[in-house]
Amino acid sequence: MQQLQIDSHQVHLWHLYVPEQDDDATCEEKGMALLAPEERERHGRFHFARDRRRYLMTRGLIRSLLSCYAPVAPQDWQFENNAYGRPRIANALPQAQRLRFNISHSASLIVAALTVEREVGVDVEHTARNAPLEIAENFFSAREAKALQQLPAGLQPSRFWDLWTLKESYIKARGMGLSLPLDRFSFSFDGAHSVAIDFEDSLEDSAARWQFWQLQPDNAHAVALCLERTQPQDVQVLCWKATPLLASFGEFQGTVTRRSAGS
């Protein structure tokens, strides 16, 4: 695999578009060869071909991707889950242990975030579908739900996806998933391009610990990125576009629509 360099003030954000149909049997065979036995078993449990294809591309991407940053063959990566089910690298090699990753997918786009020695969370949503505004009162804080309802109807779907992706990125960076109640922390938007977070005391967290970005890779998707703030340097977000199994890749311009202060 081609080796890539990443340092402590960078995030590499990878994008892989999932084709509606994939008749490349050779690519599928190569992808299956990378999977661990438990991954092959899970792949076989998906009923629909599109779900099997997305799962295979997701696992193939993360294994191939990690091998660009550490001298481990894609099929040799080992993972273990924390108490909340989030996977992390189990390989003992120091170059592997310093890597952190998180991955998200919609129906047609897989996004993976990779950093070193700091926690990261990413979420991607297909925003061309209808926003489920009716769930806002159950999953957003009271302040967020009220601010959403006060917007003109035409702006509410966009704001819903802004809030949803940001919340997902945060709970994924914490590695605790939905065990963290979504209504105990709030995002606010001061101006067109900034975002801020604050927490109820019960969560025992600080806004100073995290920084956020929202990006728009295309007209049908929204991405939110949450990164642990471990040092004062500016952080550079590099966007990459990949093909299956990293047969080819290159940088591309993901539009940053919002960021938190100091990001």
Report on this model:
The model has no long low-confidence stretch (mean pLDDT 93). 28% of the residues lie in helices and 29% in strands. The protein has a 5-stranded mixed sheet. The two termini are 31 Å apart. The protein has 7 helices and 13 strands. It has 263 residues and is α+β, with helices and mostly antiparallel strands. Strand 7 and strand 8 form a beta hairpin.
Keyword list:
single chain; 263 residues; alpha+beta; five-stranded mixed sheet; four-stranded antiparallel sheet; 7 helices; 13 strands; globular
Mean pLDDT across every amino acid position: 93
| Contiguous uncertain segments of 5+ residues | none
Described by the principal axes of the CA atoms, the overall outline is: globular
Largest sheet: 5 strands, mixed
Fraction of residues in helix:
25-40%
**Within the largest sheet, what's the order of strands?**
4-5-1-11-12
Order of secondary-structure elements:
EHHHEEHEEEHHHEEEEEEE
SS element count, helices:
7
Distance between the termini: 31 Å
Q: What proportion of the residues form beta strands (DSSP E)?
A: 25-35%
| Helical/strand content category | alpha+beta
Write the layout of secondary structure elements.
Elements: E1 10-17, H1 25-34, H2 37-45, H3 49-66, E2 79-81, E3 87-89, H4 94-97, E4 99-105, E5 109-116, E6 120-126, H5 136-139, H6 142-150, H7 156-174, E7 185-188, E8 196-199, E9 210-218, E10 221-228, E11 236-242, E12 249-251, E13 255-259
Parallel strand pairs: 1-11
Antiparallel strand pairs: 1-5, 2-3, 4-5, 6-10, 7-8, 9-10, 9-13, 11-12
